[in-house]
């Protein structure tokens, strides 16, 4: 077991491993800091942690290497991703600076700290590795356990208490007391009628002849998009795919050709609501004047036939 | 290869983490950078353990991991609570006591 790694002498293989994996670890760290999306940062950090686990294994810390993978990349990073999911994945960092020049100052401070550390380490002279051959003689885990439960047993107990307190604290912090009682369905209905906003169900999205995706707003009879038909989440993110004006124009052209073909009056295109209301009144008067004459049915089939012919 | 290389690498990662804590505004990313710093410290402890030929360094690293786990649990709970209160995870928005 100890012959595998963590010997006093370091092999060329270990040097190669160090330089290759170390580069990747630093890149992962830089990615964590520099990438704008929090999810990308989390993935970079997970990569760095896996590489650190490999370094632990190479240094004879077999138990810690496995714990690093299980606890850090397995549990802690998943917890991070879980909270990111709760808080909103799309939440990118804002580029607005509250304090002027704070970012540059921070980068400068980081650089200063880095030089200080590197120069400080450069002053130190160390020998080679002593190696863990003697310490790991009975295996890494039994050796760690015998140390943990004798020399460090008090610290171990305290850490146990800390974990318990942390678990209780987390549940206490995220627990929400319900201040008022839940509204029943009947109370909600009464409230909605009193408020007078949107009594019937909202219109369904994408009831447009060509697109039935949820991010396409339905079209009102005059061809203008119905914003209410798209989910509020998509609306607030600005992910509504507008029925483009050229598409509306194409539709109007088809309508017009159909009308010409059948000798109907031409379709005037989308109108604003005021004009529409006015027209409805005049239409009602005309209807009364015509007195029960059967109106021409809306010929949707004609449009389709025209399209198929092309 | 000298054992000091591991210490250099850990110093580099620690610096990157510290700069990240100062630069980033998203509380969750700040937290991740703190994790990076803790991990860098662990790497030095493990390297020192091998350097000196005893396992005390590994025990220290083990305790650091446990404390980091407790810290993550409480910290993320605080972030979730802050997010519920002000619908943002940006550390700039928590400025209620600013003059």
Automatic annotation (TrEMBL), chain A:
Highest taxon above the source species: Bacteria
Broad class of where this protein is predominantly found: membrane
Spans traversing the lipid bilayer: 16-35, 42-63, 69-92, 104-129, 149-173
Region (Disordered): 257-310
Ranges of Basic and acidic residues composition bias in the record: 272-289
Membrane topology annotation: Multi-pass membrane protein
Pfam family, one: Oxidored_q3
GO annotations of cellular component type: plasma membrane
Catalytic activity: a quinone + NADH + 5 H(+)(in) = a quinol + NAD(+) + 4 H(+)(out)
A single GO molecular function term of this UniProt record: quinone binding
Enzyme Commission numbers on file: 7.1.1.-
Keywords annotated in UniProt: Cell membrane, Membrane, NAD, Quinone, Transmembrane, Transmembrane helix
Places the protein is found: Cell membrane
InterPro entries (UniProt xref): NADH_UbQ/plastoQ_OxRdtase_su6, Nuo/plastoQ_OxRdtase_6_NuoJ
NCBIfam families linked: PRK06638.1-5 (NF005165)
Family: Belongs to the complex I subunit 6 family.
Role this protein plays: NDH-1 shuttles electrons from NADH, via FMN and iron-sulfur (Fe-S) centers, to quinones in the respiratory chain. Couples the redox reaction to proton translocation (for every two electrons transferred, four hydrogen ions are translocated across the cytoplasmic membrane), and thus conserves the redox energy in a proton gradient.
PANTHER family, alphabetized: NADH-QUINONE OXIDOREDUCTASE SUBUNIT J, NADH-UBIQUINONE OXIDOREDUCTASE CHAIN 6
Protein name from the UniProt record: NADH-quinone oxidoreductase subunit J
Organism: Streptomyces qinglanensis
From TrEMBL, chain B:
Protein origin, superkingdom: Bacteria
Compartments where located: Cell membrane; Membrane
Signal peptide region: none
The EC number(s) this enzyme carries: 7.1.1.-
Keyword list, A-Z: Cell membrane, Membrane, NAD, Oxidoreductase, Quinone, Translocase, Transmembrane, Transmembrane helix, Transport, Ubiquinone
Function, as annotated: NDH-1 shuttles electrons from NADH, via FMN and iron-sulfur (Fe-S) centers, to quinones in the respiratory chain. The immediate electron acceptor for the enzyme in this species is believed to be a menaquinone. Couples the redox reaction to proton translocation (for every two electrons transferred, four hydrogen ions are translocated across the cytoplasmic membrane), and thus conserves the redox energy in a proton gradient.
Family according to the record: Belongs to the complex I subunit 4L family.
Name of protein: NADH-quinone oxidoreductase subunit K
Gene name in the database record: nuoK
């Amino acid at each position: 077991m100890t012959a595998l790694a963590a010997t006093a002498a370091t092999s060329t293989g270990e040097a190669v491993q160090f330089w290759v994996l170390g580069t990747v670890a630093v890149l992962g760290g830089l990615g964590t800091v520099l990438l704008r999306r929090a999810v990308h940062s989390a993935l970079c950090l997970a990569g760095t942690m896996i590489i650190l686990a490999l370094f632990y294994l190479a240094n004879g810390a077999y138990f810690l290497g496995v714990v690093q993978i299980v606890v850090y990349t397995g549990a802690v990073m998943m917890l991070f991703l879980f909270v990111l999911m709760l808080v909103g994945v799309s939440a990118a960092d804002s580029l607005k600076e509250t304090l002027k020049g704070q970012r540059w100052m921070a980068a400068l401070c980081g650089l200063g700290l880095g030089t200080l550390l590197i120069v400080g380490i450069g002053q130190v002279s160390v020998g080679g590795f002593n190696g863990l051959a003697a310490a790991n003689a009975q295996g890494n885990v039994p050796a760690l356990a015998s140390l943990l439960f004798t020399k460090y047993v008090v610290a171990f107990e305290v850490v146990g208490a800390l974990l318990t307190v942390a678990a209780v604290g987390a549940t206490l912090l995220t627990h929400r007391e319900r201040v008022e009682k839940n509204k029943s369905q009947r109370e909600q209905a009464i409230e909605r009628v009193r408020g007078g906003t949107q009594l019937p169900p909202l219109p369904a999205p994408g009831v447009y002849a060509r697109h039935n995706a949820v991010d396409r707003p339905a079209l009102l009879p005059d061809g203008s998009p119905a914003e209410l038909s798209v989910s509020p989440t998509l609306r607030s993110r600005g992910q509504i795919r507008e029925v483009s004006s050229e598409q509306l124009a194409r539709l109007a052209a088809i309508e017009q050709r159909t009308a010409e073909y059948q000798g109907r009056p031409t379709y005037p295109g989308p109108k604003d609501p005021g004009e529409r209301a006015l027209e409805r009144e005049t239409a009602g008067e005309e209807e009364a004047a015509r007195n029960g004459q059967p109106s021409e049915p809306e010929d949707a089939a004609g449009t389709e036939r025209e399209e198929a012919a092309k | 290869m000298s054992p000091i290389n591991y210490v250099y690498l850990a110093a580099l990662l620690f610096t990157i983490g510290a700069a990240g804590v100062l630069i980033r505004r998203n509380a969750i990313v700040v937290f991740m950078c703190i994790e990076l710093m803790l991990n860098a410290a662990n790497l030095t402890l493990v390297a020192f353990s091998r350097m000196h030929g005893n396992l005390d360094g590994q025990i220290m690293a083990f305790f650091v991991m446990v404390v980091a786990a407790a810290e993550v649990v409480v910290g993320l709970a605080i972030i979730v609570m802050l997010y519920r209160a002000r619908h943002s995870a940006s550390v700039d928005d928590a400025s209620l006591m600013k003059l």
